[in-house]
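lol ok so funny story. i was supposed to be doing the assay writeup but got distracted and ended up predicting the structure for this chain instead. priorities right. anyway since i did it might as well share w the group, maybe its usefull for someone
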Amino acid sequence: MGPHRLEGLFNPRSVVVVGASEEQGSVAARVFANLTGGAFAGEVIPVNPKHRELGGRRCHASVKDIGADVDLAVIATPARTVADILRECGEAGVRTAVVLSAGFGETGADGRAAEADLRSTARRHDVRFLGPNCLGILRPAIGLNASFLGAAPPAGRLALVSQSGALCSAIADWAGPHHLGFSALVSLGNAVDIDFGDVLDYLTADAGTDAILVYVEGVRDARSFVSALKIAARVKPVIVLKAGRHMKGSVAANTHTGALIGSDQVFDAALERAGAVRAATFGQLFSAAEILSARRGTAGNRLGIVTNGGGAGVLAADRAGDLGIEVAGLAPETVERLDKLLPAYWSHGNPVDVLGDAAPATYREAVAACLADSGIDGVLALLTPQAMTRPEAAAEAILEAAKGSKKPLLACWMGETSVAGARSLLSAGGIPDFPAPEQAVEAFAHLARHQLNQRLALELPGPLSGLAAPDVAGATMIVEAALAEGREMLSDVESKAVLRAFHIPCAMTMEADSPTAALAAAETLGFPVAMKINSPQITHKSDVGGVRTNIMAAGDVRPAYREMIEAVRKARPDAEIQGVTIEAMARVAEARELMVGCKRDPVFGPVILFGAGGVMVEVLEDSAVSLPPLNEVLATRLINRTRVSRLLRAFRNRPAADVGSVIEALLRVSDLACELPHVEELDINPLFAGAEGVLAVDARIRVRRPPALAGRYAHMAIMPYPKHLVETVFLPDATELTIRPIRPEDAESEQAFVRSLSPQAKRFRFMQTINELTPRMLARFTQIDYDREMALVATTPLDGRQRQIGVARYVINPDERSCEFAIVVGDEAQNKGVGSRLMTALMQAAREHRLKVIEGEVLAENGPMLKLMADLGFSIRRSPADPAVCLVDHWL
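and the output, tada:
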């Protein structure tokens, strides 16, 4: 692949400052001074028609007058001029820009219209830009300070991406005294063009960045955000701080689900699926920055605590309990080692209290012993300044203990005046130090959470959860019919029909618009029955007297009907009453009342909810949320995050509920959310769960006609398994061939397939000698983001199983218009048409991605592959950089 599309933004060789000035106090003057007065070795070119020379440099009237290649334009001019300047940049070949100018979307409707003009102008002239209304970008390692910050932070390996310029300024000011260095600081501003996804893409591949901090106020493109975050977090720790934690996503809702799910819960669910970690406060973000700069990960959440004061250790242990961090038990050999070192009355457990008069050597040996304990994943060293304490010597001692250990070591030297020198020693030595025990434990929790979320991010659901295929067409027709009648709420009967189309067990329901019809329905279903009011305006039926249960005989039906209608009309005279629904009383022994729901979040799309059900659902507020698509692992985790999950187990004389059926119901609702973009809100409340399975007793669905979206699953924040790409064909020799997108569970067959390739086939595919895929390569090849790449495997049946005989894949290039492909077919399957079938399917998938070009490299000696390319209409030419390689490409 060529250079990243944002290479000119992050590593420019030349920068033009449009609006450059030496006017004291102006933004343009500050930016120009930062670029010319620092260590940036590239060319800095001023542009301002009012000047002929600035700072000893020739000043041009416009970008078009420069007459030389420029990588980056920094624009600090009035808002009304920016669109024309972007047009000039495009015409002059400047492909990246930073727009510092304010006066756009933050000012109201006129500003938003100006932003739209910027966006269309930039796209028309092929310019990517940061901002507007941003602080700029800093790359300390190359001396680039294209911002109006007063001073740049030190160079380091931590990146910050922020929607707030003020936060960038605060962190830059804080970094130096805390020995914290940055590889990049990026202020997104209004993010009209370049957004989180673009910047995270670049930083993921940036060799100078080891970890990323992200400050979020709002997300524009959920798919891009989650996808880029997931790719970044796969290889680097990512810590996110989001403002607005207590804003509810929906105040007035038509369902219980809509009332229960807030936007902050949804954001947490998105981060969990992406593998990133959230900081709850600004202070925690600083703590995360401290520990990430140490570049030591953790294998788990078991913390060892070494302290010279019992109270400090208890504070740390308490905070660990709050955060779900395990204060690890000490291994017998560790206790034995400490017994030889410490006085007889030491704590003999974790926290390890080395007592107030502990010498620095005692600290060193105690910390070393805990770091060596296989049951401990990280160590926190605490010190309280006491009469016999030597803080600086103790700091040097734990620095010595940390040598050779890969586990994270954190320090908290409590106090201020007497420990200031020790803290400087710790920070300079790469040990994250914190002023309070709670902050140190929170920092370790970030590392532990990162490790957990990394595992969850690898959970990629297969095609429609691997269950029996739903009747999507039938469900869609029910929804479309309601919309055609101008209704957004489906009736009870329609809602349950949609659930049945997705194989969710439901109680049988019939509608009745008179006492006689109600009696006929009750006789049809069989007593006892339940009667519920049927009104599109009434969400919570029991609140208005609209529910009767356990109607036991025919003589009770008509009176119950009349009483219910009268009671509801008094309670809700505004409601349209269409009669009642009759359903057989649910027969689920020892049933637990659960709730399963789905809500369309305005940013992240469908969200799945699980929790305690029944009439007190909003009062109990015992629920958890997750983004679809789900698999069994994710559904199980969703269940286990609620208190009601404990009721599913056996207790006293009640048998355990069938948790497998609950999981299947969640997977079915996940499928529904993926396949029906019409669904705005869905309630199954209650969902009865017993020993023999589950039953949806009541269901309510609100729908709307989805907007015209680009792509089948464009309403989803996480791309589901693209099952529509699965096809089965027959080769000319009648061999059955299945072509489908790769899945994580294909790892074993992918490894076996690569092992089976001949040395020549491996060299042709990888262009180097390779025996087999490493675990990292295997994960990378099988755990893919279908929104950014595609891999199709070809399989044939053998002894009752599918055997892989080929694979083709592409990765979308940074220009987002083209993709690079690779293909390999097993030696025994060559010359049978497998390669042609795979490439044809891969090219069709690329077209669905709206890509324009598919390209690749083929060794010149690989005659069969070059023939296949020619047969498929690819253009073929020798690489000017390497005559042994042919470049092939095809317009899609």
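Confidence is low (pLDDT under 50) at residues 248-253. Residues 528 and 550 are 5 Å apart (CA to CA).
back to the writeup now i swear
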